[in-house]
Design goal:
The longest helix has 19 residues. The chain is mainly α. The protein has three helices and no strands. It has one domain.
Length: 56
């Protein structure tokens, strides 16, 4: 497997883990903008160093 694919898989796994750590209450309180910032935009970031995260 290429390094890029391995990196992408690791980034996705980290996002899934981050989502899994959220309580049901926190998940329900996420709005569209927060979801985009925390889970969707990191998927399109060129590298982990440029990822933006939203803190609650």
């Amino acid at each position: 497997m290429s390094v890029a694919k391995e990196t992408a898989r690791a980034q996705i796994a980290a996002l899934v883990e981050k989502f899994g750590r959220l309580s049901a209450k926190d998940r329900a309180s996420y709005n569209e903008a927060q979801t985009r910032h925390s889970f969707i935009l990191p998927l399109s970031a060129p590298s982990a160093g440029t990822r933006r995260t939203l803190t609650k």
